[in-house]
Amino acid sequence: MAETLTRAPARNYVGGEWRESASGETYEKRNPWRPSQVVGVYPASDAEDARAAIEAARAAFPSWAALPAAQRAAFFGKAAAAIEARAERIAQDMTAEMGKPLRESRLEALRAAVILRYAAGEAWRPIGEMYEPSVPNQRLYTLRRPLGVVGLITPWNFPIAIPVWKLAPALMYGNTVVLKLGYEAPRTGLHVAECFAEAGLPAGALNVLTGAGSKVGAELVRNPGVRAISFTGSVPVGRSVREEATARDCRVQLELGGHNPLLVMADAELDRAVEAAYAGAFWSAGQKCTATRRIFVQDEVYEVFREQLLSRVAAGKVGDPADPEVEVGPVVNEGALEDILAAIERAKSDGTMLVGGERADVDGYLIAPTVFEGLADTAELSCEEVFGPVTALYSFGALDEAIERANAVRFGLSASIFTRDLHAVQRFTGEIGAGIIHVNSQTAGADVHVPFGGVKGSGWGPHEQGRAAIEFYTEAVTVYQDAPLS
Ligand code: UN1
Questions:
Q1: pLDDT grade for 145, boundaries at 50, 70 and 90
Q2: Span from the CA of 162 to the centroid of ligand 1 (angstroms)
Q3: Which structural domain range is residue 433 located in?
Q4: Which one from 289, 327, 385, 464 is the annotated catalytic residue?
């Protein structure tokens, strides 16, 4: 039996108004730690809602784009302050709806405000370059212009950071936005809409919808009114988004999966490497595309590293994500729980499970942190992304071998090496197949002011965040401006 809901059903934010879905349909969101508890009711939006949001964004575009950037930035400062003022509420909601441990939810809520403040600074940075002309009386320069309406399709696993790091540059460069929130974490993203509404953002500049990707996302991808789609999510959906959008000349940016390696050299600070392995593999229950999936340890220290990692797993606090001490909470829903447990079952015949592997709570979708060893590099778990608290240990002899094996997957998002050897660092940063490279820190995490994105099968299109975001959210034009002769 569902427990009583204490909050009114939520609504979409379209054209500056709070609206129910056109069909009136809703869906319930339950707490992955206590699935009998309904934590919210949300519009089950469909293509009609997406079309209304696209129309609102289209209508708002000319005046939004015409505003001086510093005026656009002023809304960001206010929205950031509104996020900071309600950060604890946002964090609690995030934890209740998708199960991220509160300690990480709190950091993510505040990170959203930092992203907005960084993006606001774009108002004072250049948007073009001046060149020497090759004829007299000419100014020759490049200029970056907004695209128009952009569609943002976002996942549940970073339910405020990812929507904000997409919408912030999109709006700052003068586009208007239709944002589709992750189905499993709508409340967190709706806080952002509320904060922009409080900031007085002009109606229609930002439109936010809840509902299924197959309905809302699909319309954004197909609708000719949408000039660009930024998508973060799974590989198969990302591929179909790319095919459909590029076929109609719509700009596409994809952030997809990862299968991120952590290399531990014999000279590494082992305690720090163990901490990084634990955090990278198990925080947020491994539900990050930057999570550590493979841990390569040099032969000489393999045994001691393994023992230390297993002690760290034994000491780790696993359970209720609302407890601020808890490091590993539930996975997002029952389907994810079943898929991860099934992948663990299959992996048992490919290698040795050292710890974990079972459901760790009768109600919550909790999986105990799980470590394998002895898997072949071609085993499923060595190659395919299992989006949960599961990682594997591999031993290696020389750095060459480790880099080659680490690179032998189709993904290339993040990678990390622990060593004191500068030569090894230079080899690694030069040769590892990853877009985000860490030296002596964990594979997950992303600063707001630098580019973020993968190589190989982990992404497509320009990278996100930092100044890199200008590539995707603007079009560059070259202007030959000859002065009149008299
Ligand atoms: C992070 O590691 O803090 O969906 C960010 C994801 C990535 C973002 C990771 N796109 O997990």
A1: very high
A2: 8
A3: 260-439
A4: 289
Strands of 98-199, DSSP E? 130-131, 138-146, 149-153, 176-180
Pair 456, 338 in one domain? no
List Cβ neighbours of 335 (8 Å cut-off, separation of 6 or more): none
Give 396 Cα–ligand 1 centroid separation in angstroms. Answer: 28
Lookup: tokens for 44: 């089950």
Mutate to test the pocket of ligand 1, among 105, 114, 158, 460 (most ligand atoms within 8 A of CB): 158
Atom 4 in ligand 1: residue holding the nearest Cα: 289
| pLDDT one-digit tens code per residue, 301-321 | 999 999 999 999 999 999 999
- Integer CA distances (angstroms), 396 to 301, 350, 377, 382, 407, in order: 10, 18, 12, 15, 14
Q: Give catalytic status of residue 383 as yes or no.
A: no
Q: Are residues 322 and 376 in the same domain?
A: yes
Distance CA 396, CA 378 (A): 15
> Catalytic residue at 195?
no
pLDDT at 1: 41
pTM to 2 decimals?
Answer: 0.97
* Residue 289 maps to a domain: yes
Q: Residue 120 in contact with residue 77, Cβ under 8 Å?
A: yes
Amino acid 5: pLDDT: 53
Kindly name the residue from 122, 255, 385, 464 that is annotated as catalytic: 255
Q: How far is the CA of 368 from the centre of ligand 1 (A)?
A: 22
Residue 225 lies in a domain: yes
